[in-house]
Amino acid sequence: MVEKLFARPDSLVDVATHYCPGCQHGIIHRLVAEVIDELEIQKTAIGVVPVGCSVLAYNYFNVDTQQAAHGRAPAVATGIKRVHPDKVVFTYQGDGDAAAIGTAEMVHAAARGERITAIFVNNAIYGMTGGQLAPTTLVDQVTATSPYGRQSSSAGWPIRLSEMLATLDGAKFIARVCVNDPANMAKAKTAIKTAFQVQIRGEGFAMVEVLATCPTNWGKSPIEAKKWLKENMIPQFPLNVYKNIQG
Amino acid sequence: MAEKILMKGNEAIGEAAVVAGCKYYFGYPITPQSELIEYMAKRLPEVGGTFLQAESEIAAINMVYGAAGAGGRVMTSSSSPGMSLKQEGISYIAAAELPCVIVNIMRGGPGLGGIQPGQADYFQATKGGGHGDYHVIVVAPNSVQEMAELTIHAFNLADQYLNPVMILGDGALGQMMEPASFHDMPVIAVEKPWATTGMGERSEPNIINTLQLKPEMLEQANNRLQKKYALLQEKETRWEEIHTEDAELILVAYGIASRIAFTAVEMARSEGLKVGLFRPITLWPFPKAALANAVRKAIAVLTVELSAGQMVEDVSLAIQCAKPVHFYGRTGGMIMSPKEIYEQIIKIFETKGGK
Ligand SMILES: Cc1ncc(C[n+]2csc(CCOP(=O)(O)OP(=O)(O)O)c2C)c(N)n1
Ligand code: SF4
Fold first, then answer.
1. Which residue among A10, A82, B3, B314 is buried most deeply as judged by most CB within 10 Å?
2. Is B284 helix (H, G, I), strand (E, B) or coil?
3. Which of B54, B67, B220 is nearest to A68 (CA)?
């Protein structure tokens, strides 16, 4: 008898994604879908997807989904969760979404201890609009709107959202991970799973920040992009579990 | 006889929402509507509902988007500056065709303005307010009792047409106390198979979305909206007419201005002047045909508003400039007296209707 050892998760639709070669949104989608399958919550999960490169995620996740205005996903998720407290509600957001236009919504959802799970993809740039400065852009990083490199004197310093949110009492699980190699992918999946379990147990707000590449807008090959992430992004955004309060 | 309770207009909207089965309220405090958010904070937990004070009007309207998409009967409220912040979310809700009730208890503007009553958000309410070709249904009560009745009507309309409905009041109506009864108001229940409730037994996910990257698809979505708006225009206009049958001059006013205008009409009638009042109750869809019909025998029209002149444009369009249209308004939170309107009436008669 033939046993299938590796298959597409049920929570991921069988279609090709629109993401660029080397973009890690696809990997992160897969990890989220695997976790949804493993926790057997496909039938009770409700996703909220953002404005940004992952705006089309409703075509990929095989769960009920609402698309939200730029940055407003945590507020939309709050509305859904208040109507369906017994369902599992998650957001999937980029750094422009979660750390610029929607910072207030993110901070206050965390402060309220909103029982939602946020997946926050930090690629240090605005992907969808063509590579402009993000709040997470590194100092000296060249982008379409920081053509001379990010100057801290005028554009300030990158926001470390995980560290910020970890100070809030309503946030129960906050971790930063990356998906640049199999070992880190395994850790990322464990963090994502924990973030959903925290919600399922009704404990409070959970967020996983996933560092990710944007080869297209960084102007790098997928391999160079992975190297740049490791050498530049991880020192600025240390991988860690910043908060894990259970019970 | 049905029991009547003396209450503020803002509270009447809150109680009527509860009667209508509203279980979710998201809002942010602002004068002169704060009694409504406070009422919901107290009342919703008593009926097993959820009240949440959001961090901003932007968050509140997006919570409404989420809750409406998830199938909840949901309401938010604010006053003028807060409504400006809600416009982004209202455009999305209209595009996603989600039902909800939005209350605007208007105050004087622009900018931070003041806290006294105004009607200068008419354009914003009836012409879209946010981006894109969309309309919210706008109902304009002029008494505490009607604030209650139109609130229930608003929830019914929202669910039937899958469209946001706005209750457009003003600080005077919100704050004034009158008896209100909540009996015999039919609440229509509508199934929501499209809602994001988790897939459950369904094999396909429900998706609520406003993105259409293909122009052909987006145009189709717009055409569908326009068809709905045409149906609303045909079926859901409401208005009131007082002494219009023989009127030579027709006053047009809504909300609190219509109460003042009515007193002026009575002053004129007691002097033997044939003056009537046309009061639009739905501001969008505007009762164009009814107004055109009402002014057929009149020599002129006088529109009265607490603004520099906004609804007057719809009045002119409705009657297609068949009669001279005059305007009288006060702004900034100032309210005209019946006598001021009466003087305008006299002027119009003296000039035989004006040009
Ligand atoms: C209100 C509003 N402002 C601006 C935009 C344009 N916009 C679309 S995506 C985006 C940035 C997205 O960046 P991010 O959230 O980091 O996601 P990524 O594309 O990198 O995955 C912006 C500014 C918009 N759609 N809406
Ligand atoms: S632009 Fe960047 S973030 Fe967007 S799909 Fe391409 S690589 Fe991914």
1. A82
2. strand
3. B67
Q: Which member of B52, B69, B199 has the closest CB to residue A43?
A: B199
3-state SS, residue A94: strand
For residues B270 and B267, give the distance between their C-alpha atoms in angstroms, rounded to a whole number: 5
The two tokens of residue B199 are 């897939």
The residue behind tokens 């009127």 is B247
Closest CA to ligand 1's atom 26: A70
**Residue showing tokens 């980029």:** A94
- CB contact set of B272 (below 8 Å; sequence gap of 6+): none
Burial of residue A205, with CB atoms counted within 10 A of its CB: 0-12 exposed, 13-18 middle, 19 or more buried: buried
One digit per residue, the tens of pLDDT, for chain A of length 247 reads: 788 888 999 999 999 999 999 999 999 999 999 999 999 999 999 999 999 999 999 999 999 999 999 999 999 999 999 999 999 999 999 999 999 999 999 999 999 999 999 999 999 999 999 999 999 999 999 999 999 999 999 999 999 999 999 999 999 999 999 999 999 999 999 999 999 999 999 999 999 999 999 999 999 999 999 999 999 999 999 999 999 998 6
Could you report how far apart the first and last alpha carbons of chain B are, in Å? 50
Q: Are A52 and A93 in contact (CB under 8 A)?
A: yes
CA distance B340 to A55: 56
B chain contacts of residue A72, beta-carbon cutoff 8 Å: 58-59, 62, 65, 89
Distance CA A172, CA A168 (A): 9
Pick the residue from chain A with its C-alpha nearest to B213: A56
- Name the token pair of A129: 């609009």
Among A43, A125, A113, smallest CA distance to A82 is for: A113
